[in-house]
Known about the structure:
Blueprint: H1 3-21, H2 26-33, H3 37-44, H4 52-61, H5 66-69
Amino acid sequence: MDNQATKIYSLGRKIFKVRRERGYTQDKLAEILDISREHLAKIETAKRTVSLDLLINIADALNIKVRDLIDF
């Protein structure tokens, strides 16, 4: 896995971890973000990249700073 892929994977794992810590299901967080559960699942498993706008929305929904999500 190259460096960029590793970072995308790490971001997805961090979103997954914080989502679970906050007690959100994929369905609930996806509903809050107005995206499909499948889209969120692909972000969490690094099968899809995330736009900056969506990353900001995810951080806001999880009550975390964007920099904490991308602290590689």
